[in-house]
Amino acid sequence: MFTVIGEALLDMVQAEPHGPFVAKPGGGPLNIAVGLARLGHPTELKARLSTSPLAAVIRDHAMNNNVGLASCVDTPDQTTLAFAALDDDGRATYEFYVQGTADWGWTSDELAGLPTGTVALHTGSLAAAVAPGADVLLELWQQLAAEGALLLSYDPNVRPDLAGSRASAVQRVERFVGSSHLVKASDEDLSWLYPDAGCLDVVRRWTTMGPELVVMTRGVDGCVAVQAGGELMELAGVRVDVVDTIGAGDSFEAGLLSGLADGSCLAPGAIAQQPVEALRAVLQRAIDVSAMTCERVGAEPPTRTSYDAIRSA
Questions:
Q1: Of 50, 91, 239, 292, which has the fewest Cβ atoms less than 10 A away?
Q2: How far apart, in whole angstroms, are the C-alpha atoms of residue 163 and residue 67?
């Protein structure tokens, strides 16, 4: 079973460029949990959820998609809002309302204990960047890495407006990278974190810090990945009629984890032992799932049935 730790917020989404905003459940970790569940994998979300009426939309969305909420923490703090504005090409830019909201108040006691049956754990995005909760989450991540029992997956999903100084962001990200088995980041993430370094150089360097596989997404240009001690893998993107890119990176992550699950790679050390062709198949699933999401309004990843239908066509 997968457990995803992180924010579950409301995305205020434009159905079309310059149009009105409509509230939809979102946040990278929630989107990934929903994506995994829709692809047929038992998944639990560990999040701090407001008890306000706004959060009922988030709870219903998770439960309607078979995402477990038993390990979530109830809090009277307000629900986080993220406004996703679209440009004329359907690309989203974000503005966040996070001050004092529910997602960032993690304590050690709240994070203690994971759902029974968890074999793989994912985190990242704002939950791994916004204090004070990010510091507590990093402590847990390093503890779990030392214990070596669970596969740990991380996606920084950098939001520069909330990342703090670049130097502190790099330090935090690298500590998560060094404690993870699987790392996925976008070329935009790496360009912001390391403006004076080539993105491929960063990917290769990260593989020397501990991860078994580091993947860099490149939007319509697909992705590249490096297995620890291995050669660069490069896969082209899939051309689709893009409605918007909201949730595209989260869907890629869900597809990536889904492929690893189906390949029996959800254990520390398993990814490092996989042949290149097996990993290329996993990466292709991630690309396809992400592309399908871009054909829909908002973060709406495909179900396993719709994914299988596309792949068999």
A1: 239
A2: 28
| Closest to 187 (Cα-Cα) out of 210, 144, 220 | 220
The parent domain of residue 37 ranges over 2-312
- Total domains, the chain: 1
> Identity (one letter) of the amino acid at 190?
L
Q: What is the 3-state secondary structure (H, E, C) of 130-180?
A: CCCHHHHHHHHHHHHHHHCCCEEEEECCCCHHHCCCHHHHHHHHHHHHHCC
Mind listing the pLDDT tens digit of every residue in the chain (313 residues)?
Answer: 999 999 999 988 877 788 888 888 999 999 999 999 999 999 999 999 999 998 999 999 999 999 999 999 999 999 999 888 888 877 778 888 999 999 999 999 999 989 999 999 999 999 999 999 999 999 999 999 999 999 999 999 999 989 999 999 999 999 999 999 999 999 999 999 999 999 999 999 999 999 999 999 999 999 999 999 888 999 999 989 888 888 999 999 999 999 999 999 999 999 999 999 999 999 999 999 999 999 887 789 999 999 999 877 6
C-alpha neighbours within 13 Å on the C-beta side of residue 148: 4
CATH code (residue 90):
3.40.1190.20
